[in-house]
């Protein structure tokens, strides 16, 4: 039923949709592995998406936009770090606050900078494709000429896996997330580790926002990030707090999105709204059938009090 | 003196008030930086809430659903669950209230309970499903809830476009039958006698003729009290809170943890579904429309519950505060020209400081101890 062309198309769309999610999910992984629940990924992605589009528009340089997105996401994540690490505040509450502040600030700034509009103007230049703009033009392979962000997301996944499991610093992060008191007695600075991880998590999420507004679409709109941060959050849990697990969950989700797009193009009897549910239904089904119980890092969500056992 | 200060600081309400003040201060700073007069903006905000009876009525109308979704989230919090699915439960509430309200046309005494209960039941089933998946398969409620929110959104859009319910040349369904309406004296809006009866009274005519004054707020308040009683004055509530506080200890004490998880989510879902149903029966256009993104009635419930510190009664006030900010915020844009998103930033800041000010009681404790040591 599906021709070769459709298979390439499905792969291409799968990768395209999964890239922003993967960045967000990797942000979630690093933050939660250090013991800080980050439910604010959605807000950090939104502010990143806006910063990317705004800087990309004014400088005409998408790479500067990408950097700005990382910086903006990082800046917002500092709020979360201050609340959850320094003030030992409830991390869920702080995360929800970030989800309100992020989009609020993005839309507020958009209205100030773009004549009262809640969307930016299209960027003159998007981030490049993997093999350049015109490679494989009009061939079946053109669907595989994916955005560069797809490759960056995959690379980041590998790097994060390597750092977490093959380096001393990664061991420190995981120790802090499992048993901060033990880590502390071994001379690991719990506060600094958690600050760094939350900061990185915000930067990753910012990149995720940028890969939406500089690659998938070419401008910021109020619905550019509508729920991807939450899907990424789900992917973190789904992937059992590991980089590859989370990336795999994002791929599955992107694949379901791709099926929706491809099937929607044909003459199927299924209404488009029912088809649109597919990614979400599929996720629940996979969880019920294959994944089951997932166990968070032991100290995830718990502030570290020195001297308390 | 010291003792009273400590006592005041230790009250949860003090932390909340400090958080709200901080929200206003941060918003003022941002407005000033953006070149708007903060005083003027806040004046616009307050007059947008209080200057006309019509405005006050609209604030209450806007607050009603988020008080209920706030209760839903707060109740789940107390039982150890994070109900991020209030949004989806609210949506299925609106869907089933609309379906039943269109398909059935009985006398109002039967029709209203039927429509409202249909929406409530839909939300309850939706919530219980999350609880079931958690209890039976150990799947984290946050994942399933996030997925179910989207499924509800697309289900709603699907129903809007079915031949049976779709109103031709529109992006919505038909409105529910008039017998389902829960407004106060809706007929007076159009009847000569009704208009004449309240004409002399500015307050009444504003309330009754210009806004959808409805019974929803009464039900929301009753539910808040009811949930308080269930949580703090019933054996079931004790069990639910015990599971929320320490599920291993609860299990050891002979409480069936899995059953309690499902029941807790059933009740939480019912509250959000009720919010959806009351929106359909109480507020025009009394129907569901195609949605491109979430309308946030459930997500706002999260903020309400947090500002209320998960207190059921607190949700009433937090909901009114939230409703006032959302509704009055529109005036900030229309009068001063400042982006109305400043309100979202402000609400976010309030929630952020709610997280921070949780440490106020602990600090007060320290302060009190130091004071006591000093006296010695």
Structure description:
- The complex is a heterodimer of chains A (309) and B (376).
- Chain A is mainly α.
- Chain A is built from 12 helices and no strands.
- The N and C termini of chain A lie far apart (61 Å).
- By secondary structure, chain B is mostly helical.
- Helices cover 76% and strands 0% of the residues of chain B.
- In chain B, helix 15 runs antiparallel to helix 16.
- Chain B is globular, with a radius of gyration of 22 Å.
- The model of chain B has no long low-confidence stretch (mean pLDDT 90).
- At the A-B interface, helix 4, helix 9, helix 11 and helix 12 of A face helix 7, helix 14 and helix 16 of B.
Topology diagram in text:
The complex is a heterodimer of chains A (309) and B (376).
Chain A: H1 4-33, H2 41-59, H3 62-86, H4 91-113, H5 148-166, H6 168-178, H7 180-185, H8 190-216, H9 228-238, H10 243-265, H11 272-276, H12 278-291
Chain B: H1 2-10, H2 12-33, H3 38-50, H4 53-78, H5 86-103, H6 108-137, H7 141-160, H8 192-199, H9 202-210, H10 216-233, H11 235-245, H12 247-252, H13 257-282, H14 297-307, H15 312-336, H16 342-357, H17 360-375
Helix pairs in contact in B: 1-17, 2-3, 2-16, 3-15, 4-10, 4-13, 4-14, 4-15, 5-6, 5-7, 5-13, 5-14, 6-7, 6-13, 10-11, 10-15, 14-15, 15-16
Task: Write a concise keyword list for the protein shown above.
heterodimer; A: 309 residues; mainly alpha; 69% helix; globular; B: 376 residues; 17 helices; 76% helix; 0% strand
Summarize the structure.
The complex is a heterodimer of chains A (309) and B (376). Chain A contains 12 helices and no strands.
- For the termini of chain A, the CA-CA separation is 61 Å
Low-confidence stretches of chain A: none
Largest sheet of chain B: none
N-to-C series of helices and strands of chain B: HHHHHHHHHHHHHHHHH
Number of strands of chain B: 0
The DSSP helix count of chain B reads 17
| Coarse morphology of chain B | globular
Main sheet summary of chain A: none
The unreliable regions of chain B are: none
Mean pLDDT of chain B: 90
């Amino acid at each position: 039923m599906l021709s070769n062309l459709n298979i390439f198309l499905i792969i291409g769309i799968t990768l395209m949709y999964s890239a922003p999610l993967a960045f967000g999910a990797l942000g979630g992984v690093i933050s939660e592995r250090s013991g800080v629940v980050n439910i604010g990924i959605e807000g950090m992605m939104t502010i990143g998406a806006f910063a990317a589009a705004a800087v990309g528009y004014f400088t005409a340089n998408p790479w500067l936009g990408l950097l700005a997105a990382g910086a903006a996401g990082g800046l917002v994540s500092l709020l979360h770090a201050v609340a959850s690490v320094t003030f030992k505040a409830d991390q869920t509450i702080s995360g929800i606050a970030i989800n309100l502040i992020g989009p609020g600030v993005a839309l507020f700034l958009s209205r100030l900078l773009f004549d009262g509009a809640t969307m930016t103007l299209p960027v003159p230049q998007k981030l490049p494709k993997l093999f350049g703009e015109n490679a494989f033009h009009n061939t079946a392979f053109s669907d595989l000429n994916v955005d560069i962000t797809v490759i960056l997301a995959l690379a980041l996944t590998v790097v994060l896996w390597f750092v977490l499991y093959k380096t001393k610093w990664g061991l420190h992060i995981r120790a802090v997330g499992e048993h901060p008191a033990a880590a502390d007695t071994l001379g690991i600075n719990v506060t600094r580790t958690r600050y760094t991880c939350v900061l990185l998590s915000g930067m990753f999420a910012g990149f995720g926002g940028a890969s939406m507004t500089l690659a998938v679409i070419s401008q910021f709109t109020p619905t550019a990030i509508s729920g991807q941060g939450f899907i990424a959050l789900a992917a973190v849990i789904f992937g059992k707090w590991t980089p590859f697990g989370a990336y795999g969950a994002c791929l599955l989700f992107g694949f379901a999105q791709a099926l929706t797009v491809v099937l929607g193009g044909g003459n199927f009897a299924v209404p488009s709204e029912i088809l649109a549910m597919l990614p979400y239904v599929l996720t629940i089904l996979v969880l019920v059938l294959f994944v089951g119980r997932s166990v968070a890092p032991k100290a995830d969500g718990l502030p570290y009090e020195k001297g308390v056992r | 003196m010291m003792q009273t200060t400590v006592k005041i600081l230790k009250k949860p309400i003090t932390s909340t008030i400090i958080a709200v003040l901080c929200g206003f201060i941060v918003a003022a700073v941002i407005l000033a930086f953006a070149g708007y007069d903060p005083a003027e903006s806040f004046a616009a905000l307050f007059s947008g809430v209080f200057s006309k009876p019509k405005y006050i009525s609209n604030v209450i109308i806007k607050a009603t659903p988020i008080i209920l979704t706030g209760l839903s989230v707060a109740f789940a919090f107390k039982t150890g669950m994070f109900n991020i699915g209030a949004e989806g439960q609210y949506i299925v509430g609106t869907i089933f209230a609309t379906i039943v309200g269109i398909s059935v046309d009985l006398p109002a005494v039967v029709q209203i309970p039927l429509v409202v209960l249909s929406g409530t039941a839909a939300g309850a089933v939706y919530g219980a499903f999350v609880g079931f998946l958690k209890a039976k398969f150990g799947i984290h409620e946050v994942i399933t809830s996030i997925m179910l929110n989207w499924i509800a959104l697309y289900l709603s859009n699907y129903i809007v476009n079915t031949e049976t319910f779709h109103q031709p040349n529109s992006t919505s369904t038909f409105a529910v039958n008039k017998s389902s309406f829960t407004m106060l004296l809706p007929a007076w809006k159009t009847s000569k006698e009704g208009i004449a009866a309240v004409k002399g009274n500015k307050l009444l005519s504003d309330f009754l003729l210009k806004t959808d004054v409805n019974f929803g707020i009464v039900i929301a308040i009753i539910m808040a009290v009811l949930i308080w009683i269930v949580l703090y004055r019933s054996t079931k509530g004790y069990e639910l809170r015990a599971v929320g506080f320490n599920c291993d200890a609860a299990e050891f004490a002979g409480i069936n943890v899995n059953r309690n998880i499902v029941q807790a989510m059933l009740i939480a879902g019912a509250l959000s579904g009720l919010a959806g149903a009351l929106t359909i029966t109480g507020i025009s256009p009394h129907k569901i429309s195609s949605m491109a993104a979430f309308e946030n009635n459930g997500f706002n419930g999260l903020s309400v519950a947090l500002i209320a510190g998960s207190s059921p009664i607190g949700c009433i006030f937090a909901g009114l505060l939230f409703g006032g900010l959302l509704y009055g915020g529109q005036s900030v844009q229309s009068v001063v020209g400042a982006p109305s998103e400043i309100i979202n930033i402000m609400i976010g800041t309030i929630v952020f400081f709610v997280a921070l000010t949780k440490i106020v009681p602990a600090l007060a404790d320290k302060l009190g101890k130091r004071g006591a040591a000093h006296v010695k």
